[in-house]
Amino acid sequence: MTALAPAIFVNHGGGPMPLLGDKEHEGLTIFLRDEIKKHLNLKQIKGIILVTAHWEENKVTISSGKHHDLYFDYYGFPPESYKYKYDAPGNPELAGKLKKTLDNAGIESKLDPKRGWDHGVFVPMMLINPAADIPIIQVSVLNNQDPEEHYKLGKALYEFRKEGIAILGSGMSYHNMREFRNSRNKKQVVNKEFDDFLNEVCTAENEDKRRTGLISWRSQPGADEAHPPRAAEHFMPLIVIAGAGGSGPGQRIFNWDMGGTFRLSGFIWKGL
């Protein structure tokens, strides 16, 4: 019998910084490289569907090639950060099955055999699974940033967990570029209230509380500071993963303050 694969939301950090040994990313790098192994058994999963914040489309778009080059969608970093390789295979058959599943759920989608894997995929995956031996399907978020549609997408993805396919969301639980520039190293957490809200709804025993809380997330105190209006693409993968979580509560598996200022949280759903 195939073990139920988990749904996990991870923070991927700034550009390639977790791969470059950046001290401000040390806690995040350690989690992705070492600690996540406590929660994700790579020997048990048959593939990974990875929802990335760095791919926004007007309909859900699914990478469907046998192989995808890397898409270096960041600027101004050292030359070595544009030479990375990550040769995990794609899986056209799984991509086609995913599209059919979304069609049946009433979710518009399309296949894309050409777009490269962006850094929302390869930065965390180079740390999580450097062997690059597990097939990956990269999935976009929607540019409408509608929380209800993203939760519905997650509900559809849940079925693949039963087949041993892990569902990963790659984004940031806090992502405010202006504050990253202006408030670094304040040594005072600027988003505690919003992070507390995330933990409360993601670990709720009642799925209705999780769903209602995340769909109405924009009205929560601190939401606009954590993810400014029309710039919530890094939050959408978390909503998708919560939708894929099934009926049970999530567990916070990562809670760390970047630069002592920006609190980041990661979550896993393991049960039915």
Any overview of this molecule?
The chain is an alpha/beta fold. It has one domain: Protocatechuate 4,5-dioxygenase, Chain B. The chain contains nine helices and eight strands. It has a six-stranded mixed β-sheet, with helices on both faces. Strands 3-4 form a two-stranded parallel ribbon. The longest helix is centred in the middle third of the chain and has 15 residues, at 147-161. InterPro entries: Extradiol_dOase_DODA, Xdiol_dOase_suB.
Rg value:
17 Å
Largest beta sheet, briefly? 6 strands, mixed
CATH C-level category:
Alpha Beta
Portion of residues in beta strands equals: 15-25%
Helix content: 25-40%
Low-confidence runs of at least 5 consecutive residues:
none
End-to-end separation? 15 Å
Give the neighbour order of strands across the main sheet: 5-2-6-1-8-7
Based on the structure given, which CATH architecture is correct? 3-Layer(aba) Sandwich
Q: Which fold name corresponds to the CATH topology? A: Protocatechuate 4,5-dioxygenase, Chain B
Characterize the quaternary organization of these chains.
single chain
Dominant shape: globular
In short:
The chain is α/β, with parallel strands linked by helices and 272 residues long. Helices cover 31% and strands 20% of the residues. The model has no long low-confidence stretch (mean pLDDT 96).
Keywords:
two-stranded parallel sheet; 20% strand; globular; six-stranded mixed beta sheet; 272 residues; Protocatechuate 4,5-dioxygenase, Chain B; alpha/beta
